[in-house]
Design a protein that fits this description.
2 strands; about 5% strand; mainly alpha; two-stranded antiparallel ribbon; 2 domains
Length: about 375
Amino acid sequence: MVRAFAELSNHRRHVLEWYRYSLKNIKANVPTDNLRIELYNTFKETVRRNKNHKAGWYVRGLLEDLSLLNKHIVDDDIGKLAALLKSYLDKIGPLPAKVGNLNVPVKRSSVMNKLDTQTKIEKKQQVVPISGSDDLYRYLLKNYNLNGPTKTIPSKYINQLLRPLAIHEKYCHILYRLEHLIAKGPPKVSINYTNAGQSRIWFIRAPFNRKARQSKRLTGIIIKARLKAQDNLDRARQCETDLLYAYQEAQWEYTLVHNQPYPKKFSEVVALIKSGKLGNVPNMFVEWIKPIFEQIDILNKTNNKTQQKFVKSRDQLVDGQQYQYFYQLNQQIYQKRLKRFQGLKAELHTTNPFTKENNLGALLVKWKFMKPNQLSKLTS
């Protein structure tokens, strides 16, 4: 019994991949609205009518035409693309009217006459006539998807009408973000730490001493502590390497005296000397290895002293009222910011997005929520 191609998994997957790619290609790369709309509708209608077709050669012909369709779009061959479209329009007849945000296509004859006379530069200008900032492009793209204005809006209206609205929308997002941050209340003041080797350096973190505004003194303490911790770590690793060399030197001396090597392994000798059980260990091994352990003990004591020093500094942050000072200062800064925001909200009714002096950006600069160099230009 003959099975429909849609029931074959490999064929179905292949056709779905072509279908999705072709839809994206038509939307992204066909230069004119009318041609794009007719291609899009004709393509979807052809797929719908032939999805259950069982004739192998006919389906193969459809797939070959689909490959040609994408090739003509990529090559920007409008003539061949229109001819292929016409052949399918003759087959399937007039399409039903589509309800949506697509423009109603004009007659194909007028479209073909215009396409024959357009140069490649003119077509590119028709595809992307919008120059300016990313904010304007996003605004037009968003409103194109929602309300459906064409992409051939005169530059006069873009500069005088749409660009100020796009910039105003950008400033509105900044205002909403400010309102959200202020509604959350004062930022947190906390006691944080950073690692420096085995030690933890404790400090008070507040909104006004983050990143580049961090105290230079604190930055110097952190750098110095980390360099010292790294130096101690390098010395400790060197001592561990020297233990093996010391064992080999002691073994060599023991062999010269007794004409045979000492039977205990490196790990056993090191463990005995480290634990202080020196009775069964030859003196030459103790003389070579014990000084290295004494050096390791000095490094460990240095690390312990550093840790205790930073623990005391952490306790002084609270006991010495330093935390309370930063907390109160943070509250004062928040209250000033809240007062400025309330003043900004009181003047919102005076804003006009089409004027340079009274737009929302100028108001944000006036109340010190933006810097003058962060403003966008109203004209291209």
